[in-house]
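Sample pair:
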Amino acid sequence: MTTKTNPPIGGIKAKKGKEDAVVQLRIRVRAYENKILDTSVKQIIDTALRYDAKIVGPIPLPTEIKKYTVNRASFVFKNAREQFEIRIHKRVIDILNPNSKTIEALTNLSLPSGVDIDVKMM
């Protein structure tokens, strides 16, 4: 009697050895303006592709909206209020198995002001 084993789901190997480990560089980009964010993400992707890196993304994350309500007058017209909001747009880019030239090029990249970058090695 023989038993049949099912292949792993999604084509991923069940056992990972040291040679099969995938090093992943996760770049999280945040900005207040979406146009500046998109141009800086394109600049990051072009730099990574120049050094033959495999890229996943950019993946848009939900926009974080912070709302503030302020009184218009301090004493007389207490019910008159103004509302302001700040929108923070976010994108995630994953670079799989980056080499040292790719990492060096990404660290030397100059991006416009107002763009925040978080880089994690996973």
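The CA atoms of residues 28 and 92 lie 5 Å apart.
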